[in-house]
Design a protein that fits this description.
alpha/beta, nine-stranded mixed β-sheet, two-stranded antiparallel ribbon, 7 helices, 33% helix, globular
């Protein structure tokens, strides 16, 4: 069954790409999905892997210096011709072999059951509320803050399209997209926690996540050392040394969030009118 793997990124995270794909090649050698790297302008290739650089901002017009996170995601989806997309990010560094047979099993399941819009492949993403009719898959609870999660998951491409609002950043996409998906009553599943367990049995074993607040998460250091990956960690610095955000920056964030919440209320009102009789 055909599917795409989207490695979501932006050009300022270029320092992650070589380590990511070195570990990808090592730990997912039997991957048969088409790999897309969601760059903004930059080209990229890695020896022994067929990586398609999206270069989504090339030829596009948008307000401001950079395109929004959601716009870049939409442009990446435009480049794909498969109905199923496995979402990952450039700092989800693999640390053990991927269970490719299970990934392909769930891709096949989604093709056979079009009502399944998403399958979360980790126990670290969402809350569930009971068993589904499918083996080792639970039903994702509707009312939760991050029902839509950017951790590793298989998505139906048209579902992602329906959730995207091009003015949103990644955090708004997760939080507000979760609210929209609940109104849409989309069917999401998640691997059962008595089947997949962090550091015990994982379908896609990776670090959650390698870069936080623009700084390296400490777990990346021994992983890179183990695999001979050279990295100057001083350029970004380590998460444990991150300074507290300046007061004015925190105030600006809260004011922007108030505005975003107001826009989201109007969006939900529209969606409720559309889906209430479905």
């Amino acid at each position: 069954m055909q599917y795409s793997i989207l490695i979501n990124t932006c050009d300022k995270f270029e320092d992650c790409w070589d380590p990511f794909f070195k570990l990808f090649k090592l730990y997912w050698s039997d991957c048969r999905g088409t790999i897309y790297l969601n760059t903004e302008y930059k080209d990229y290739s890695y020896p022994g892997l067929s990586v398609v650089p999206v270069k989504g901002c090339v030829g596009k017009s948008f307000k401001g210096k950079f395109a929004t996170w959601s716009s870049c995601l939409k442009w990446a989806l435009d480049k794909m011709d498969s109905d199923i997309v496995l979402y990952m990010q450039e700092d989800y560094f693999l640390k053990a072999p991927v269970k490719n047979d299970l990934v392909e099993k769930y891709v096949k399941l989604m093709y056979e059951h079009p009502d399944i819009k998403c399958i979360h492949l980790t126990d670290q993403a969402v809350r569930t509320c009971g068993k589904s009719e499918y083996e080792n898959l639970d039903i994702v609870e509707f009312n939760q803050r991050y029902r839509v999660s950017c951790q590793a998951a298989l998505w139906r491409r048209d579902e992602l399209y329906a959730l995207i609002r091009e003015y949103e950043d990644a955090w708004q996409f997760e939080e507000f997209g979760s609210q929209r998906s609940a109104v849409m009553k989309s069917k999401y599943l998640c691997v059962s926690r008595d089947f997949v367990k962090l550091n015990q049995f994982e379908i896609i074993p990776y670090i959650f996540t390698g870069i936080v607040q623009g700084r390296w998460y400490e777990e990346t250091v021994p992983l890179f050392e183990k695999h001979g990956i050279e990295m100057d960690f001083t350029k970004r610095g380590m998460l444990k040394d991150a300074p507290k955000k300046p007061f004015l920056k925190r105030v600006k964030y809260r004011l922007n969030k108030i505005k975003a919440i107001w826009i989201q209320k109007k969006e939900l009102k529209k969606l409720k009118k559309k889906y209430v009789n479905l």
